[in-house]
Amino acid sequence: MKVAVAGCCHGALDKMYETLELLERRHNVRPDLLLCCGDFQAVRNEADLRCMAVPAKYRHMQTFYRYYSGEKKAPVLTVFIGGNHEASNHLQELPYGGWVAPNIYYLGYAGVVRFRGVRIGGISGIFKSHDYRKGHFECPPYNQQTIRSAYHVRNIEVFKLKQLKRPIDIFMSHDWPRSIYHYGNKKQLLKMKSFFRQEVESNTLGSPAASELLQHLKPTYWFSAHLHVKFAAFMQHETNSKEELPKATKFLALDKCLPHRDFLQIIDVEHDPNAGDSLEYDAEWIAVLKATNNLVNVTQSSWNMPEKNGLHAKWDYSVTEEAIKEVLEELNHDLKIPCNFTLTAACYDPSKPQKNMEPVHTINPQTTEFCAQFGLTDINDRIQQAKEEGSGRGECELEEEEEMDSTGSAEEPSEYNTDNSGLSSFNPDEIMLDEEGGDEDLSTCSVDPSPDHPPEFSTSFSDIRIMPDSMVVSSDDATDSNNEELERSGGSKQVEEKSSIERSLKRIGGDENGNSGVKKIKRRNQAIYAAEDEDKTD
């Protein structure tokens, strides 16, 4: 089956879907599934904008609300993970995943689903070591700290995913696995993004947690976004025994969704022709959720996951075939995910803007149903209970307090002692937030919708690549053209508009290295929603 993979969407749903529809009309290529690697921005209303960790000038309504209200429907099944620029209050309603709109499914903090027999997993957010060992304690209304920590990856999600034993076909993360750049054309990457050099050479670019998952899961494909540059790599995994068959991962990072950028890729994935067209639960993942349910933490206390180190009575939470069979029996062998999307917040109305709308902590009926069905803890319900009981650790307007290690883990060091979000601090294409939060006004938002202020781009096939059946990337970065050869191999074809105007625009949009280092720092928060020529006026 054909799978379309998109990088950072930044709320530009119309752009993505129009590009796919144009691809079908002109080249008779219709993807069966669309995957989005974070920064999806499922913004329903003005309150959601307040929960998105971006400077106020980047808070635009975009077009998701039209899909949420039912005015429009996604033309292809869309599965996405969260990034670091999201309506966190909305996604937090669905910690185990769920529908954010008809035909648009969020994988949750971490999750695994199946589609046509293809096993798809993902982890939302980005890595920050100072929040990695905390529980999911945040809830709206957020403060300057929690609006950011809400999207930071937690060790419990990584621990759950590491309990999986069955093969994963596709995995998504927002930030890149650390060290993956050593398995692709590193020289070409640094030519395009020279400001990554220091982190690449010190091997600190990317997420160590994602790297750990890559080594454990060994998926066939791994897709990421976040750094706003296209990059491919091929990683051959070491085998643990002579009996184990060699495995390799084809890694691809996608660019952001802007005109004339390589933000979308089409790949062919082997699937089960006898499988249905519905999105399905993964039985092993459900069994893992049940097995690890007692590890759920909704406090900001830091703690480590169970390890075989003498401090824990149990450290292996992987599940048996019998446990997986029990899940199948609970579902009567019907793994289809119910289409139980419901509205949980008022939808934006361009004719009646409500700039003072405040976010509220909501318990989503989808999560309630899911937890009741499988006997799981509803994280948001637990947080709400803590609020009602007046627990300081459950408060939403949380004051900074001393971190305390949980019982049994007090003497354990953190898994990772470096603080790295996977994002170069000098990336001019990424929205950067001051860690002190002094320049950000959480009470300000712009609600200019796309219909009234349309984006200045037109759908172009410079935005699409058809991925070859196999990606072969040398770890030897002595040649600048490895990535180009990779895209040409296997009979791949590049679908691209050939007009001189578009080529000129592409050259303008692709000039990442033409400015001095000082200018790059000055402009690092720009170019997410604006066109390149608009950026230069700021």
TrEMBL record:
Cofactors demanded by this protein: Zn(2+); Mn(2+); Fe(2+)
Where is the sequence biased in composition, kind Basic and acidic residues?
386-396, 485-510
Give the UniProt family note.
Belongs to the lariat debranching enzyme family.
> Mind telling me which CDD domains this protein's record contains?
MPP_Dbr1_N
**SUPFAM superfamilies given in the database record:** Metallo-dependent phosphatases
One annotated GO molecular function is:
metal ion binding
Claim: Zinc is one of the keywords in the record: yes
Highest taxon of the lineage:
Eukaryota
Q: Which gene encodes it?
A: Dbr1
**What are the boundaries of the region Disordered?**
386-538
Q: Which GO terms describe its biological process?
A: mRNA splicing, via spliceosome
Give the Gene3D superfamilies listed for this entry.
3.60.21.10
Q: Which residues form a coiled coil?
A: none
What name is this protein filed under?
DBR1 enzyme
